[in-house]
Amino acid sequence: DTATTEIYTRSLVGSVRCVQETAIKECSKELEKTPNEEKLKLYGLFKQATVGDVNIPKPGMFAMEAKAKWEAWEKLKGVTKEKAMADYVDLAKKLLTPASAAKIVQKELSSLTN
Predict the structure, then answer these.
(1) What pTM does this model have?
(2) pLDDT digits over 63-94, tens only?
(3) Contact of 49 with 88, CB cutoff 8 Å
(4) Contact 97, 30 (CB under 8 A)
C-alpha cells in the first residue's frame, strides 16, 4: 500500500544519506583514491536517488566537470529512486575497505532503529 511504500522510501533515503555522511566523515581519504569513473557513478546514483531523472540542462562543453556529472546522472534516466538508492549503497560499500564498510553498516542500522 501507499503508506508502506512511503515508509520504505524514507528508510532508503535515510540509508543513502547516512552512507554518504559516514563515508565523507570516516572514509574521505580512502574515497580520494577512488577512480573518477567510480566517483561519477556514485554522484549519478546519489542524484537519481534523491532527485530522480535529470531536471537541469546539460552544461556547456567548457564546464567539463559539471558536464561529466550531468552525463553520469543522465545515464540513469528511468531508474527508480529505490533502485538508485540500493545501487548507491552497494557501490559505496564495494569501494570501501571492510573496516570502513562495517562502520557505515553500523551507522545505517542505528539510523533505521531510531
Answers:
(1) 0.66
(2) 999 999 999 999 999 999 989 988 988 887 78
(3) yes
(4) yes
